[in-house]
Design brief:
The protein has 18 helices and 21 strands. The protein is an alpha/beta fold. It has an eight-stranded mixed sheet with strand order 10-11-9-12-13-8-14-15, sandwiched between helices. The longest helix is centred in the N-terminal third of the chain and has 15 residues. It starts with 10 loop residues before the first helix and ends in a 26-residue tail after the last strand.
């Protein structure tokens, strides 16, 4: 959908959204809002950064009536900081409709007259017991951050809330990731719920690795920290920086401060400007590709891209890609990057996500990035949210890394001067190498075997099973020779197609000969959220 009008949103809410700089629905909103408008239960696999509050908030507000009872809509969130933010966002949209929103926290009026009540599960359970804020008049229940709440031991409070909500009330669960515990909870309490995006197919792993995107952790006000990053990129050799902003207002605010600090800003394609300010992803991409200096132009997202397509349009070209991200948006960025085929690394601390082998230059263990990207029980917990609210995000991250190193949990670092081909003890004899060419490129087993043995100068007996999929391939290589294969194949061409090689994240197998190639059947690409 190109507009909220096409989604059937009423004029008051369209104007309220426009006042917040929200002119058009994101891909996620375009898929979720029609489902909710039809009254269905919904499991929304997403998190902060994707526009989730608008996705469930607009259909929810349109169901409520100003003269109806309090607690027509109940929104449960993992922590008080999130409760205040969600309540403020919903409150600005609710005002034109004559609806009142309240958070169960200090600084908010009594909730007994509010049509929408936001709070943590414990606060909501206490409010229900003392004031009956949920009951027969409740039309919608939203569980925003369900995986976090379950991971933090809030199941009992959630069950108590659900027991007071009518069976016919619409129920919405928002979670990233969808853990087994989350899915089991949704299956028990949401009636024939629609999943947006659709449920992940069992066994689907990471997609083709297209590149790497840097991320910088920021606080709520991104403008000043964005300018600091712009200055860093220009000082590092970028000829221009193309900054993508979610709204025209944010772009204008950034442009004013850039000009004040002496950085000339302009529209994408304005060669005299050091900083290009883009709101339309496609227009920015077109200007980047049309520039004679495209290889030296850095791209920066002041707001987290809402979906994989947006990430790829913004950061698929250019010399450096950087995303400004709030701590609570890390799970969303990790999911979007995975589906778009990009790795993540931090430019500030010089830390990079491991891509496989010990020679990847990784300074942190895989486990830490797993926690950051998809660990509701560890990284994105209410306790961590409170720490980040009290201290800076980099201070919290630094403390976590220090503890990892002190406790011996970090992977050993390959120091300068060490043999990059040396394989530390404990590494399997065979590893898999990932290649960005596949059946669609008409490559054959012979093509891959010839390229590997020729470019890496190794014998065919050192190559194991070769799997050719639709858009990529996996090849088993003897572990001590894998670094040579990765280096040898990167930048070469097979059947006219440029090849990128990296370690595959799948498990290795014991030594063995080359097996028969098993072609993967062509499959339809799943829609991206």
């Amino acid at each position: 959908m190109d507009s909220f009008e096409e989604l059937g949103v009423g004029e008051p809410l369209i104007e309220a959204l426009a006042a917040e700089g929200v002119e058009a629905p994101t891909s996620l909103q375009g898929k979720a809002m029609p489902v909710l408008g039809r009254g269905h239960d919904l499991v929304l696999r997403s998190g902060p950064g994707a526009g989730i509050v608008v996705a469930y908030g607009v259909p929810m507000l349109e169901r409520l009536t100003p003269d109806g009872p309090a607690g027509q809509a109940i929104v449960a969130v993992p922590d008080q900081l999130r409760a205040a933010g969600v309540a403020e966002s919903l409150g600005r949209l609710a005002l034109p409709l004559g609806l009142q929103v309240s958070a169960l926290d200090r600084g908010w009026a009594e909730a007994d007259r509010a049509q929408v009540i936001v709070g943590t599960p414990e606060a909501l359970r206490a409010g229900i017991a003392s004031s009956g804020i949920a009951g027969p008049g409740t039309l919608v229940l939203v569980l925003d951050g369900l995986s976090l709440m379950l991971g933090a031991g809030m199941l009992e409070a959630l069950e108590a809330i659900l027991s007071t909500v009518p069976a016919e009330a619409q129920r919405i669960a928002v979670a990233l990731p969808i853990t087994d515990e989350t899915q089991g909870f949704a299956d028990r309490h949401l009636t024939r719920a629609t999943h947006v995006p659709p449920r992940l197919t069992e066994g689907v792993g990471d997609l083709v690795r297209r590149g790497t995107v840097e991320f910088a952790m920021v606080r709520e006000d991104r403008v000043v920290e964005t300018i600091d990053q712009v200055a860093r990129l220009l000082a590092g050799g970028a000829s221009q920086v193309l900054v993508f902003c979610r709204t025209e207002d944010r772009a204008a605010d950034l442009g004013d401060l850039l000009d004040l600090r002496g950085f000339r800003s302009g529209y994408p394609g304005e060669e005299e400007a050091a900083v290009w300010l883009g709101v339309d992803d496609l227009a920015g991409l077109a200007a980047l590709r049309a520039s004679a200096a495209s290889d030296s132009i850095a791209t920066l997202s002041m707001d987290v891209p809402t979906d994989p397509d947006a990430l790829d349009r913004r950061h698929g070209s250019g010399s450096t890609a950087l995303v400004m991200v709030l701590p609570r948006e890390i799970p969303h960025l990790g999911e979007v990057a995975r589906e778009a085929g990009y790795g993540l690394r931090s430019p500030l601390a010089g830390l990079e996500t491991p891509s496989g082998g010990k020679d990847s230059g990784a300074r942190l263990p895989v486990e830490l990035f797993d926690l950051m990207g998809k660990g509701p029980k560890a990284f994105a917990t209410p306790e961590v949210a409170q720490l980040v609210g009290r201290f800076s995000a980099d201070a919290v991250a630094g403390a976590a890394v220090k503890l990892l190193l002190e406790r011996g949990l970090a992977d050993p670092v390959v120091e300068a001067g060490e043999d990059p081909d040396a394989i530390p003890s404990g590494v399997p004899t065979w590893v898999k190498v990932f290649l960005t060419v596949g059946e669609r490129d008409e490559v054959t087993v012979g093509d891959l075997l010839g390229a590997i043995t020729g470019e890496a100068d190794i014998e065919g007996s050192h190559v194991g099973r070769i799997e050719i999929k639709d858009t990529y391939s996996r090849v088993e290589i003897r572990a001590d020779l894998a670094p040579r294969v990765v280096r040898g194949l990167n930048g070469t061409s097979i059947r006219g197609r440029s090849v990128r090689a990296d370690y595959d994240r799948g498990a290795a197998r014991p030594p063995g000969g080359r097996g028969e190639t098993k072609r993967a059947p062509r499959r339809k690409m799943k829609p991206r959220d």
